[in-house]
Amino acid sequence: MSTARRRPGRRGADAGNRGKILAAAAKRFTELGFRATTIRGVAADAGVDPALVHYFFGTKEQLFAQAMALPLDPGAVVEEMLAPGVDGVGRRLAARLLQVLDETAPANPVLALIRSATAHESAATMLREFLTAAVLNRITAALDVDRAELRAALCASQVVGLIVAREVVGLPALRTTDRAVLAGIYGDTLQRYLTEPL
Amino acid sequence: MSTARRRPGRRGADAGNRGKILAAAAKRFTELGFRATTIRGVAADAGVDPALVHYFFGTKEQLFAQAMALPLDPGAVVEEMLAPGVDGVGRRLAARLLQVLDETAPANPVLALIRSATAHESAATMLREFLTAAVLNRITAALDVDRAELRAALCASQVVGLIVAREVVGLPALRTTDRAVLAGIYGDTLQRYLTEPL
């Protein structure tokens, strides 16, 4: 699809369609959850062809990340971190997370997701389904150890906690400590959760 | 104060005063933060004598816990867990936390606190100041190791993350895994954060 030729005069129409698709996607994801939302349904709501949704936004995961204004596609990051193998993946994940937090703070859209999830059961479902499909299942599939699902969930709990404690509550020690030091400490925790005996 | 004699006919007045005090406290804590809120100020707003606030609610920390409808006073719990020493404190804390979560779910008032903190800077300040005064400073004072403030904050990040991932996002593996197993895993993390080399 990326080789399709676009006429220059279509820029305005493109922007309009992108906006319609993102709005329709945000509504469907929030109301139906991640799993039950389809590209086809989003396209219908936006009044465009499903192929245009794929053309603009890629996969359903990528559409979600953009509809929720996430600074990146978590699934792609996890895949990249896991690519060299599980050795050292904890530190790679922690370092990247801290870097992204510093680059996107203070208006981190992740906080909006967490806020919604604490307020609405439907938003919590959406977040759980997206995390499971985009992040946790990828981690589980990459692990060759017992209790893979629990291990992925343990990691998610420390990642979410770091985000909330550092960016929402704003604990000073987590803001002033050198990022490399934090990445080492949290990286060791994630690595233990992923590959060491529990 | 607990030996003061109360006339039976005062029950209605007591209930009214308790309600007024809790409402005034919730408003002051939310607007001014934990540090700047005083028992004297709360009493003035509620139109009662400061001694009555102490009589009904004890310390400022205890008043906060009750004004925010927390299932317990976190400071008192941390003190109890630390009393036998830092050996094994990680597992004691994790086990108690999981027990309280199971007993108070799903309407956990902690979630309301986290939701407010993601929405309002003033609520985030309140939560940070309360956590620091009631929980983190107690932990820091009990530790005879380097980086005590960072260690307390690391623990807070895992505790908050466990609460959010299990109770808000509702990750299945954290809900179905035996509580004793989870207490062991998270207890080891907390213990490492508190007393092992970082």
Task: Give your account of this protein's structure.
2 copies of one chain form a homodimer. Chain A has 198 residues and is an all-alpha fold. Chain A folds into 2 domains: 9-59, Homeodomain-like (Arc Repressor Mutant, subunit A); 74-195, Tetracycline Repressor, domain 2. Helix content of chain A is 74%, strand content 0%. In chain A, α1 crosses α4 and α2 crosses α3. The radius of gyration of chain A is 18 Å and the shape is globular. The first copy, chain A, starts with 10 loop residues before the first helix and ends with a helix. The mean pLDDT of chain A is 90. At the A-B interface, α7, α8, α9, α10 and α11 of A face α7, α8, α9, α10 and α11 of B.
Q: What are the low-pLDDT stretches of chain A, counting only 5+ consecutive residues below 50?
A: none
Q: How many domains make up the 3D coordinates of chain A?
A: 2
Tell me the greatest interface: A-B, 44 and 44 residues
Question: Structural class of the helix and strand makeup of chain A?
Answer: mainly alpha
Taking all Cα atoms into account, the compactness measure Rg of chain A is 18 Å
> In sequence order, what are the helices and strands of chain A, one letter per element?
HHHHHHHHHHH
Shape, principal axes of CA atoms of chain A: globular
Keywords (chains A, B): DNA-binding
Protein name (chains A, B): Transcriptional regulator, TetR family
GO molecular function (chains A, B): DNA-binding transcription factor activity; transcription cis-regulatory region binding
Domain HTH tetR-type (chains A, B): 15-75
